[in-house]
Amino acid sequence: MAFLEHRLIFKNIDAPGYTRDIACYQKHGGYEILKKGLAMGGPAIREEVKKSQLRGRGGAGFPTGTKWSFIDPAKATKPIYLICNADESEPGTFKDRQIIYKDPHQLIEGMILSCFANGVKLAYLYIRCEFTEGWKILEKALAEAKGAGFLGKNILKSGYDLEIHVHRGAGAYICGEETGLIESLEGKRAYPRIKPPYFPAVLGLYMCPTIVNNVETLCNVKHIVEMGGDAYAKIGRPNNTGTRLLCVSGDVVKPGYYEFPCGAVTLGQLIHDVCGGIPNGRKLKAVIPGGSSAKVLRAGEVYKIKEKDSQGNLVDREVKLEDLRMDFDSLAAAGSMAGSGGVIVMDDSRDMVECLANISTFYAHESCGQCTPCREGVLWLKKILSRVAEGHGRDEDPALLKDVADRIAGRTICAFGEAAAW
Known about the structure:
Elements: H1 22-27, H2 32-40, H3 42-52, H4 64-69, E1 81-86, H5 96-102, H6 104-117, E2 122-127, H7 132-147, E3 163-168, H8 178-185, E4 210-214, H9 215-227, H10 229-233, E5 236-237, E6 240-241, E7 243-250, E8 256-261, H11 267-274, E9 284-288, E10 297-298, E11 302-308, E12 314-320, H12 328-333, E13 342-347, H13 352-366, H14 372-389, H15 397-408, H16 416-421
Parallel strand pairs: 1-2, 1-4, 2-3, 7-13
Antiparallel strand pairs: 5-6, 7-8, 9-10, 9-13, 11-12
Helix pairs in contact: 2-6, 2-9, 3-6, 5-6, 6-9, 13-14, 14-15
Organism: Verrucomicrobia subdivision 6 bacterium BACL9 MAG-120507-bin52
Cofactor: FMN; [4Fe-4S] cluster
Protein name: NADH dehydrogenase
C-alpha cells in the first residue's frame, strides 16, 4: 500500500522548477500570508496558534501557544527577543536543513509573523556552524526580504519594525538546548541554565523575555495564519495536530525526508510502505524513533498505551512496535519520544553493543562538562560499551552500565545526561 505525503512545509521542497530566491517564493504566494497577519494583529495570531494546538517540533513537544502565552507583549518592560533554533545537530535528523537550503523564505516569513505576534523587534537565527552554505543562503534571503520591504523599518507600511540577524554556532551539540544556545549567543560558554529561575520567557537573552522555537515550528506558524487554527487542528490527531517532518535513515530501501499528518502512519507503515522495507531480506531489530536522544525500541516488544475509543473514553490497548503511531503521545506511551523526528532503523545484522558504543562516544564528546554526573558518567558509559564491543567485556558490565545510567538520570541541569543514559 502506497502512502501519499501531506506536504505542507515541504510543499515546494524538491518541486520541479522551484528555486530559493525571493522572486520564485513570491510567485508561489510567498509573503502574502505576512500581509494577512499584519492586518490581523498580534493578539489574533497568538490566538490562532493556541487554537491550532501546535506542539514544538524541536524535541520536547511543548505547546507553542502556551509557550508564547508566558510573555505578554502589552505588559513587557524589557525588550522581547525571539530566537530560531537552527542548530540541527541531533544524529539521524536532517529536516531543518532542507528548509534552510531549499526554501529559506518560508522560514523567514514564519519568523516575521511570530515576531509580530509577540512584539519582538530584534530576532536571531542561530544556525549550526557546519551549515556553511546554509548560513550564506540565509544571509542572502534576509537581504532580499529587507530589500522588498518585508524586514526593517515600517514593514509594509504597518508601523512594525523588525531586524533578524544570523548567528553561527561553533559546533557544540549542547547549543541545541535552548538555554545553552542563549549562553552561546551572549558570547559565553554554552552551559545550560538552571530552570527555574532561568526560564527563557522570564530570564532569557540578556535577562530579557525570550521565545526559542525551532525551524519546523516557526514554519508551521505561517500555515496556521493562512488556514486558521481550527482548520490546522483538524490535521493529524487530537493533541498531535498538524504535519510532522520525518527523517528516515539506516537500514531501509528508501531513506529520506517525508511529511505526514501527525499519527497518520505507524512505524511499520513508515518503514515498509513509505521507505520500501528493509533491504536484502533482513528483519527489523530495533528503531530509534526521534533522533539519538530517544529511547531505543526493540522489535517484538509490546507496549501498553492509552487511547480514546469511539465514545471518547480512555482505554488501555496493547500495541506492537510496528503498530505504534508516529505521534508525540503514542511514542511517549511506549517509553520513547517523537523528539526531532529522526527515525533510525536497524536490521538484525546490527550489533546493538556497537551501535550503543557509537552513540555513547558521541555523547561523551558533546557533554558540556558542567554537571559531574553527566561529564563523568557518560564517559564511563562510553568506556564500558567500547570495551564490551571490542570483546573485552566483563560479567559485571551490564549491571555496572545500568548503575551508571541510573546515577546520571535526573541529576543534571538539562536533559542531555538523561538522553545519553537512555
